[in-house]
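To: structure subgroup
Subject: Chain for Friday's discussion

All,

I'm putting the inputs and outputs inline so they're searchable in the archive.
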Amino acid sequence: MSLNRRDLLQRSGGMLAAGTPALGTLLWSAPARAAIGDTLTVAYNAMPPSWDPNLGVHAVNPTLQTILRTLYDPLITQNEDLSLAPGVIDQFSWNAEKTRMTLRLRTGVKWQDGTPLTPADIEWNLKRFGEKGANVLAPIWSSIKNIRVAGQNISFDVEPYRANMLQRLTFLCCYLIPRHHYEKVGKEGFEKQPMGSGPYMLEQFERGAYARFKANPHYWGPKPAFENVVFKFVTDPTSRVAEIERGTSDLTMDIPYEEYDRLIKRPGLAGTIGPITDVSILFFNSNGVMEDINVRKAAVHAIDKKAIVDRLHRGYGTSVDTLLAPQYLGFDASIRTPYDPKLAAELLAKSGYSTSKPVEFTIQTTRGYKPKDYETMQAIVEMWRRVGIKANLEVYDIAKQFELRSQHKLAPAAFYNWGNATADPESSLGSAMQSTSVFSSWKSKDVDERMIPLFSERDDAKRLEGYKALNRYIAEQAYILPLFQYHLPVVFKAELNHKHHMAGFVLPATITRKS
């Protein structure tokens, strides 16, 4: 694999246009626009800052999972409806007491260099997941204890009990990497030569521009329809629209909804759109101005979520009042924080604020990362202004968001899209609201006291009722501001088949040509 721009220029025969931060004339040419050929080109909205799929805060970014799953396999996969499916692990189960779990490794799986993937590799990865200070989900993986290998089976205790451990093995920081390769090249060498067992191998990577993959000849699953896949890193949504409109990319996503509606009417283009497990939220920081419950509750009640979804998002979205979307386990539609600007103004008045003497703070947001993210925050700023909140917009990129959140340095209010493909409440509340989590911005013991016992609750009905009560409490205290469940727009050339995935994955290995 080449990571050197000079080598890339030489290999492309000097075809990179001057001043073009991209792929070279070959990928921008008329022939490339006319036919897809053996290469699927995707205009994508994010770039992995590292190729280790399990280490660093970037590893929990839901948007990056599409790229990571192109190169790596999780232990267990998911169908489009989020149900568990066999993958590298083709059988998985709890024992009757739900104290021990057994996984069976599919026979014949190989790493991308042709070396067999063994049960010992699974054991090494499970132990690596739980290494303190490495994997950001190590506090969860540390429940995996007493690993034993017998033939193709790998079994282990789960202590303390985690009700959603099987689901956890499908999503975030659970990707398999080869021990023999990692120990040979080391941490820095792995960044230059990443390896997995997934459908594609990384061939070329130009930071800030693109990543090029080629099909893995040793892949255990169905042969992908495309020999090569290119992810162009196009962070500006207008540029993503231009990519698909002029035909220099075959597929793109997370574009403005009005552009989606327009593009799918054009000859030669098609699209899919539907709800995904991402929830748009505003984190509140537990330090500073948001310590005032009147300010928090006013900020919540001043927002007309339905108007935002209907007008800005053209109806593509579902307003929510908790961290859980309707498809999540434990969702409770009776928990409501209604739009009530009169109540918002009254709450602010209790703390001495008004439209003539507003409370002032910073709100952080991405711009173009998700459809209408910046415009949504502009609308919220205006709604807040009308009741006595002066919010100053500050734009950051998603990498900065993760950095600030892990340091507990987010602004009083900060936009994020919370992804939870497990659809289990623990994966949302247990990460976003636990005070010791690097992902939480609101940190308070009253939440921990109500939540932590639920992690080890073996009675599932009791556990889910506990999460409903916790969600109601968090909503009443206005510790976080959920906005709406995202709908993911994907536009692609009409000769392609793409199926909507509830987790928001757009996986090149599953995209086919129409016959």
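Points worth raising on Friday:
The first helix runs from residue 5 to 11.
Residues 275-487 form a domain with the Dipeptide-binding Protein; domain 3 fold (CATH 3.10.105.10).

D.
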